[in-house]
Amino acid sequence: xxxxxxxxxxxxxxxxxxxxxxxxxxxxxxxxxxxxxxxxxxxxxxxxxxxxxxxxxxxxxxxxxxxxxxxxxxxxxxxxxxxxxxxxxxxxxxxxxxxxxxxxxx
Amino acid sequence: xxxxxxxxxxxxxxxxxxxxxxxxxxxxxxxxxxxxxxxxxxxxxxxxxxxxxxxxxxxxxxxxxxxxxxxxxxxxxxxxxxxxxxxxxxxxxxxxxxxxxxxxxxxxxxxxxxxx
Lengths: 106, 116
What we know:
Strand content of chain B: over 45%
Mean pLDDT of chain B: 93
Helix content of chain B: under 10%
Shape of chain B: globular
Number of helices of chain A: 0
Strand order of the largest sheet of chain A: 1-9-8-3-4
Order of helices and strands of chain A: EEEEEEEEE
Oligomer: heterodimer
């Protein structure tokens, strides 16, 4: 399985954009890139996924590097409710790593 | 999206006993998944359950310890057998979204199990 690397934790100010990076240098050509998040005391929540092109939805944007060896989840305007652990996952089997714990400062 | 419910929401069990966790989905789905989240840890995939076939277990998980049933397209059970305190975890089921193959999954609220 292709591996992902994410920072352990990040901080951001409320109402500012947040860029959450993910490196996946061993990604294969058919691997989707998925992002999930887990809010405190809740089950994981799907955020977004993509294959090659950048993707936007109500929750976030996903920017995928041209060589697909890295991607960035963009929260356009962070709120306190966005404080969670964010997971970058490759492939069609959802296997969770350690993720990035995002802290939002009021 | 899919609405997923799990029963029980939590339980406290004695070591050596077994607990069966139920997962109900409000629509028919092909693939269901069972995960475990130990305290302070990330989620670990236990097995994948397709209707009409035996579950596929991940490395480190065996059918004798975690038997799974999948009698129809909206329901599954996971049994945690011969429990020990190390089995204290949150157990979650999830289903794959309609766009099959994309990996988009929806998760239930989880069952919090404490083994004493």
